Prior knowledge:
Strand order of the largest sheet: 5-1-2-3-4-6
Strand content: 35-45%
Structural class: alpha+beta
Helix content: 10-25%
Number of strands: 6
Shape: extended
Radius of gyration: 34 Å
Distance between the termini: 21 Å
Number of helices: 4
Amino acid sequence: MKLFKLTATLAIAGTLGACTAAERLTQIGQTPTLSAIENPTAQAGYRPVVMPMPEPVVASYQPNSLFRNGARGFFKDQRANRIGDILTVKITIADKAQIANQTTRGRNSTNSAGLGGVLGSIFGAVVPDVITSADLDVKSGVNDSGTGSVNRSETLETDVAAVITQVLPNGNLVIEGRQEVRVNFEVRDLIVAGIVRPEDIEADNTIQSSKIAEARIAYGGRGQITDVQQPRYGQQVLDAILPF
């Protein structure tokens, strides 16, 4: 069964590699194509956000008043607050972590038992080779040591426009934005999604990435540079199945 699974995996990987190679051959000398602008809610795998909601509050209106319930100002608020509105997300990520860990473990044990007299008294007459003065010694030892360190530094500063795709019952906004930039034969993708409060949107219709709940931020690329940096499919298959 294991051999069959391994053979099937290699066959699938070879088929996918052949299809990918054929597709790449048709794209030689051409720039990477940009994705078409589509409705995010119509894409495969999209699921509306469901979050715990507080009890609904009935809106109250004051007669003969210039202000309405829930208004943020005397004049109309130009900040995004409805499905389809656009706001700018200021992404600022400066992550740095340094971790060093060292462990040492050791254990030694020695057990000694005088079994010769007991064996000699029982089997001495039958087994003449038993030495009545013999002892049984058992020794064991375990030593283990390990060291590990992490030194990571990541910095990302950019702006991306996002669209409100959903308004939750408590007024929070679900946003999603994607940006593609093609430079020569490389396409850089930037994706941002999450939940924001209308109160956190600034007067210039921008919001900081640190104020996005359930934030999903992805920055990567596709093209010739990324293709060279990635290992070949055969190497990826071997890395997945080799136990050493």
